[in-house]
Amino acid sequence: MITLHNIRCRSLTIDHLEILPGITSIIGPNGGGKTTLLRLCAGLLTPMNGTVLIDGKTPGQTETGYVNEFPDRNILFPTVNDELASPLRFSHVPCKEITEIVTAHARAWDICHLLGRRMQDLSGGEKMLMALATACITRPTLLALDEYDSHLDASRCATIETMIQQSGTTYIIRCTQQMETAASGDYLLFIDHGHIIHAGTPAAVFASLSGTPYYPLSWRCFG
Questions:
Q1: pTM listed for this prediction
Q2: pLDDT digits over 1-24, tens only?
Q3: In 10 A of CB 120, how many CB atoms?
Q4: In the predicted structure, residue 222 carries a pLDDT above the cut 70
Q5: Looking at domain 1-63+141-153+172-223, which of 3.40.630.10, 3.40.50.300, 3.30.930.10, 3.40.640.10 is its CATH number?
């Protein structure tokens, strides 16, 4: 379980929040605190006050994969092969094992055709696909995704959704502007003005958001 207690960070205020294993989606207006919460869980921000624990450990003690919403900000190395291998190298995995893992992972993600290319030559969607594949290669405990789906078409989003669910990651926390994506998760948080307004299953949260822009279109049409 991820627990946040007595959190004060930027505009975000959380007295107590528990996030269970599975896929948790975060929605709400821009500037409401969604990315701040995501970065706190990933260990990229330290709260001014309060604690964040992932299964009793701090985020810094937890294997985490993070994907920025801007594709170019995820890039560390010039080539696709080096980018994909980077988390393994940072973890001091032996070179022979890295080659085997990268090959198998690229095959599973259907990105073998990209391995010989330069990162900057990829399209925005390909860069985001690479960022997701790279974040998942070490099978992290937490996968934090900041609006990754805004750069992918519907078909690729569906494929990525399947890959993420099969990644073996215990906690997947994602900010999204796509209500259909949010509805497909296990849990849903609605954040506005730095506060968690609604938390629960998608069915429970969206029931409180009926009649607002934060209600899945498919639910309006077929609900």
A1: 0.90
A2: 999 999 999 889 999 999 999 999
A3: 10
A4: no
A5: 3.40.50.300
